[in-house]
Amino acid sequence: MIAARPRLAALLGAFCIAFSGILYEWAAVSPATGAFWRATFGLPLLGLVALAERRRFGRLPNRTIGLALVAGVFFAGDLISWHHAIGAVGAGLATVLGNLQVLIVGGVAWLVFGERPSNATFAAVPVVLIGVVLISGVVGSGAYGADPAAGVALGLVTATCYSGYLLIIRRSGSDLRRPAGPVLVATLSTAVVAGVFGALGGSLDLTPGPASLAWLALLGLTSQSLGYLLISVSLPRLPAVLTSIILLCQPVLTVGLAMVLLNETPSASQLVGVAMVIGGIAVATLLGGRSRRVRSPRQAGAGA
Prior knowledge:
The chain is an all-alpha fold. It contains 12 helices and no strands.
């Protein structure tokens, strides 16, 4: 059983999520269409697991359901803005920028809930910010992306939306016996919101070609459902430091995959920026949270 091998489960989950941007690019659809179909194709597997959870542990509390619905709105914003960021700066760099949610969550939790970040987090902020500037392409030459500066802005929107998702789910409490239920509700909400947004903007394609549907189906099965389920099984069973390291492998892996599979070629300055962002997040996560265990996939990881 995969639960008996939490390290393997976490690695497989991170590996699934690392392909999110790659599969979206191969699908060649609009941002709203990608978000809608990713969520829609993720529902069947999540639904089966959630049904098994309900039969064993009972119905989710109304408060959890309500908060998961709201969280899904933020996750739709996360996916749509992230897809736009991919178009501006590439899948690899956009995924790195999405991981800025680690610092944003810490800042919001401090301002709203009085949870003061660690000294390590404060020290990491300027390092990460310098890295973001380098990724934007304003320093150096030959920056990769159609519009790197816009990609950075969209990446910040992505991280902010995903932070909202994390904080709302966090306030609902955590039932480690039923990880799929809240994710199912949030995913359903994401599909509806992305569909409405795309329909109103005229960008929703309900009949993409067979090749696009195949890539989107794979995206929904792996990243939206299987990846998060594997991570949800593994995180409560592993030390926080180890889980943080495993989750930080995901954006690094995505950058490498994008360079190989999508021929993305970030400049030297942008790659230095990637190293600074990932390094700063690592410092904030590893040194700032040694005493805490990561409780669920809704409290860690990227918004991809």
